Amino acid sequence: MCRMPAGRSLFRKSVRWVGTSARNEKTYDFLDMPLKNADGSISRLEIFRDITERMRVEEALRESEERYRMLFSESQRRLLCLRADPWRETTENIEFNDNLNRMLVISREESAVLSFEE
Known about the structure:
Elements: E1 15-20, E2 27-36, E3 42-50, H1 52-74, E4 80-85, E5 90-96, H2 98-104, H3 108-112
Antiparallel strand pairs: 1-2, 2-3, 4-5
């Protein structure tokens, strides 16, 4: 299965790491924690969680965000992303792309603080 981190001290402190099994290609979150028993002896609590699906979803989200950022920033169109709050009747500027910044002749810092009101 997965190998423990090198130099791990067995009973001194909790150790946590992520590893991938060569046998089944699953990714696990490992926690190894020392526990002091009532008689003074020490036991270890070891928890192994399969996080393969979570890691796959996180990677897919990172890739999706990268594609969005690239499309947004490289678009030849002038794009503005806003967050609207219909209950407060407000909008908040989230992001301009460079083409809109050039059209408005403002910097990224200036565009970040613009507000839009009716």
